[in-house]
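From the pipeline queue, job 12 of 40. The input is one protein chain; the requested action is below.

Action: predict structure.
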Amino acid sequence: MTAVGPNLEVGAVVAERTVHLTRAALVRYAGASGDFNPIHYNDAIAERVGLPGVLAHGMLTMGLAVETIVSWLGDSGRILDYGVRFTRPVVVDTDAGADVSVVAKVGAIEDDAVRIDLTVSHDGTTVLGKAQVRVRAAS
């Protein structure tokens, strides 16, 4: 089989984890990314624009989701493409923070690549839709 592993089959879970986000993590991400939009750190402004609270950056959520498969892959350079749809926000509570869960399953096996489907959820709700990573199959 030209898949990432010898027993790989469609539907197999290849990685999963839960990441706890805090307001401090949002501040660190804002500094690293340069995205200082106040909806990512200021409750009053987030509420003023109609949001349920301070939101995690979409790109932070997207990044932590794909990072879930890196140890399974062994080499992040094998990622061929990655895409998501931002469907729901991750609200990060001042005190409790937020847990984001990621489950990575084999969605399809091609001759030279494997599609990994990521289910990314927060508080029981899927936050990224059509989150798919195409990775180069092991040689």
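Job complete. The CA atoms of residues 117 and 132 lie 5 Å apart.
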